[in-house]
Write a structure and sequence with these properties.
It contains no helices and seven strands. It is an all-beta fold. The protein has a four-stranded antiparallel beta sheet, with no helix packed on it. The chain has a three-stranded antiparallel beta sheet with strand order 5-6-7, with no helix packed on it. It binds calcium ion (2 copies).
Length: 92
């Protein structure tokens, strides 16, 4: 399931490939030019019970991924942001 957002705030749309369960997820940060579409790919691992919701939840202009787990009456979720071009963001 591809998710679309600008996860590093460079105004180029990025992709986050997420599949429930064991498969590895991939964050593709666009490094595309005016003619070609290219992506830097970073491996991610997300626990399977979470569902991702995209939005800029902290208003910094960079899209975040809100991980939602509906396993109790109280939602268990966390927001994270790919705040730079280095894959150092934590995807809780
Ligand atoms: Ca981007
Ligand atoms: Ca944000």
């Amino acid at each position: 399931m591809p998710l679309i957002g600008d996860f590093n705030g460079d105004d180029r749309t990025d992709l986050f490939w997420h599949a429930p369960g064991v498969p590895t997820d991939w964050l593709w940060l666009s490094v595309s030019g005016p003619i070609t579409a290219n992506f830097d790919r970073f491996e991610r691992q997300v626990m399977s019970e979470f569902r991702p919701l995209i939005g800029d939840f902290n208003g910094d202009g960079i899209d975040d991924i809100f991980w939602y787990a509906a396993r109790s009456e109280t939602p268990d979720a966390s927001a994270s942001s790919g705040s730079s071009t280095t894959p150092t963001a934590t995807w809780a």
